[in-house]
Amino acid sequence: MSKVTVRYWAAAKAAAGVAEEPFEAGTLAEALDSVRARHPGELTRVLLRCSFLVDGDPVGTRGHETVRLADGGTVEVLPPFAGG
Fold first, then answer.
1. How far apart are CA 1 and CA 41, in angstroms?
2. What family is this protein classified in (predicted)?
3. Pairing between β-strand 2-8 and β-strand 74-78 as defined by DSSP bridges
């Protein structure tokens, strides 16, 4: 398990009620499962529309269970942005 920081932006930040928080997870899928467990409700719905960056790299269409997380890494949760 790696210690990572999950950072929320825009609607994800509003739904989580925090800008960022620490988690322990080995993959992006595990981190997102932990996020959903900690924040059931609106954030879970927002995550369905989000894209993700792991240590600055776009996850794209890769399966979240295949995206390994490095200790000290960062997961950015990016909802769709208007006007972009």
1. 26
2. Belongs to the MoaD family.
3. parallel
- Domain parsing of the chain, residue ranges: 2-78
pTM for the model stands at 0.93
* pLDDT digit string, tens, across residues 33-62: 999 999 999 999 999 999 999 999 999 999
Span 2-78 CATH architecture:
Roll (3.10)
Residues 6+ apart with CB under 8 A from 62: none
Query: E strands within the chain?
Result: 2-8, 20-25, 51-54, 57-58, 74-78
Nearest to 54 by CA among 35, 80, 77, 37: 77
